[in-house]
Amino acid sequence: MTRSRSRLANDSWESLLTAHAALMKRFAAEPIWGEVSMREYDVLYTLAKHEGPIRLFELGRGVLLSQPALSRLVERLAERGLVERTPDPEDGRGLRLGLTAAGREAQRRVGGRHAVDVARAVADVLTDEEMRQLESIGRKLAGAQAPAQTRTTSKEAVL
Amino acid sequence: MTRSRSRLANDSWESLLTAHAALMKRFAAEPIWGEVSMREYDVLYTLAKHEGPIRLFELGRGVLLSQPALSRLVERLAERGLVERTPDPEDGRGLRLGLTAAGREAQRRVGGRHAVDVARAVADVLTDEEMRQLESIGRKLAGAQAPAQTRTTSKEAVL
DNA sequence: TTACGGTAGATGCAAACGCATGAACTTCGA
DNA sequence: TCGAAGTTCATGCGTTTGCATCTACCGTAA
Fold it and tell me: Domain containing A80 — which CATH number?
């Protein structure tokens, strides 16, 4: 008998989780996190990717942290001179976050070494085809996750 | 020009990370984590899956936590009567961890509801084919992650 | 047997986190 | 135009985490 779609979905999610945990552990064990921690790097990378001032709550979308935790993490990075926080002229409540020169440099330095480790871990195991599939699947999964729509009317087979 | 394998590997890993964060946020927002937190559920689920006594450090493989954090998390679960810790008769250093009846019941209760959310999030977005691909890719990635072998001799294109 | 290196968990402590809430500002309807 | 509701970020506080270290035990070899 074939697995139900629900079962298949849960199995594939568990597989993603397991892979995530295994790779994160491997990367965490690499000796490149002296300057910035993995979580800090996550923030620096997101800021580097956007290349323009970004709001705190936008940053929060990509980072798996609560809003207060992110607020204080950014505060620490600012105190260390890696991130710049300026009030948003167009919205008195908000901040505009950006990397300082030192922050950008740190991101590049750590990112370069991290990318080597990622390449080793992933490219040694997957074919080009699989990597492309993973990229596509991840994009689809991340794309449609407004945090809890109740728009579904279809009855679904549960496990 | 085609992306280098290293670039492809990094892009696909970023995609996995983004999907992971988006889905975790969505699941965390679901109103099912009153009884046990997500991390606690992770431990209960792992114990339920194994179905036999398991060692703490084995548990640690699957869970993204430091050894001391896991040790204390298990301690708390034991105090709440969800997990049973008994000394391992075959190894005086070790523990044998298992679910209590209450723990198993809690895992089933929360797990059932969580599975519904997972199915909604994943199966609504991916085809059966994609879910199977994701499962296979995740398995491959998780499989080969002994935390930092230096067995590679090939020169690799770095970014 | 006994010493020695290695492994499994536990513990002290400072750092970081999440939840609840607060302060400042924006937005929108009356 | 004015007040209520919503949004953005910060802060207080108790809980949890990670790092370093410690204790207890195992395995091996002299």
Answer: 1.10.10.10
